[in-house]
Amino acid sequence: MREVHHFIDGGVVKGAxxxxxxxxxxxxxxxxxxxxxxxxxxxxxxxxxxAKAFPAWAATNPQRRARVMFEFKRLLEANLDELAExxxxxxxxxxxDSRGDVQRGIDVVEFxxxxxxxxxxxxxxxxxxxxxxxxxxxxxxxxxxxxxxNFPAMIPCWMAAVAxxxxxxxxxxxxxxxxxxxxxxxxxxxxxxxxxxxxxxxNGDKVAVDAILEHPEIRAVSFVGSSDIAHYVYSKxxxxxxxxxxxxxxxxxxxxxxxxxxxxxxxxxVGAAYGSAGERCMALPVAVTVGEKTGDExxxxxxxxxxxxxxxxSTDPEAHYGPVVSAAHRSRIEDYIQxxxxxxxxxxxxxxxxxxxxxxxxxxxxxxxxxxxxPDMRSYRDEIFGPVLQVVRADTLEEAAxxxxxxxxxxGVAIFTxxxxxxxxxAAQVNVGMVGINVPIPVPVSYHTFGGWKRxxxxxxxxxxxxxxxxxxxxxxxxxxxxxxxxxxxxxxxPTMG
Length: 498
What we know:
single chain; alpha/beta; Aldehyde Dehydrogenase, Chain A, domain 1; Aldehyde Dehydrogenase, Chain A, domain 2; 2 domains; 7-stranded mixed sheet; 16 helices; globular
């Protein structure tokens, strides 16, 4: 059986802990490979390799680091089909979605190619007699990223590409559910010209996570996953004097006003709610309809659209989405569907028990749709992370807007309307980190920044974009004077107010 080990100091290193986890084929339910789970000693070896590589890599000028990023981008593009197919085989998302996963990672690598400009500091000439002040951005040292199963190409690139371009060395701990694409990223980064030890991939579970959070050589940690684990990572990492950004869960709302283009809203939301089997932190699992007429029309048309979705294998080019990642996750989603029924929500479509001929043991679940969900229901408050859309009805825009603003999660929100003033006021006032106006999944482009509020994010700095550069660097400010004859014996005086 195929085994996945670690990528440390420029080569594949066989796992030494003796512990392995199964990698499933979500289409069949069969175990297709095993991944080695690292011991603390293996994480320490990766940290040692990264620390050894750091001085020379940090001293490499930004333009040369950018050239490595340009080549890494070229290699990702050249291998996009291979990466997408490998990703689908372990995750279960259809190949078209996997291509999008890889492409969004490529977009951030492209952003990182501009690192010579992005790391420029500030300069003040003549702050005092013969005195100039300037700042410089410098890398932190050894950094780490802990990434989830749902985007095994994009999120590692969000973290590693920007961190490495800034001059850091990096340890990536991907999800043990689909580790093969992250391993290929390590190989391609080396092929692109990054020195050995600049990017290391350590596979593992909580043992590896805790080792990252405790290792004294690691200066910064970025995390994406569930909110409970994000809070754990943030608390433990900062307790060990690390800089930490930890992105958590989500319960994104789409608010549909009576004047919305209903054709477009239904088309957008059916993809946002059910695409990639709902396994996206920027999925749209809650639709808030304003007015009974709007709610009736939306539910009728959404149920028709959802019934037209094809659930298929990840290799089926006609499938709208594939299986979920594991049997345990499918059971969790089905438990939440039953919870919604028990809580009194109206189950319009039930996706439980969905099977495919010839793939009866695959981790498939059909689209589910709830109407008349109430904010006091636990199934509404929690993140389900599956192909389940819940419709909450509101009488006014104010009532509708209060739902995402008061929810424990604050990742993304969308509003569907043709009223520019209403949309503008909503965007300014809603208590959520990312807003879409007639855009169902408001993930920012790579040169902006990604991050939610409340329990969707712990830490003060967002992913990628300018915020990413700030997270992976530290500021040094220099005040300099070069004495000249006309200054004579004049003493250095710090400028004062007044």
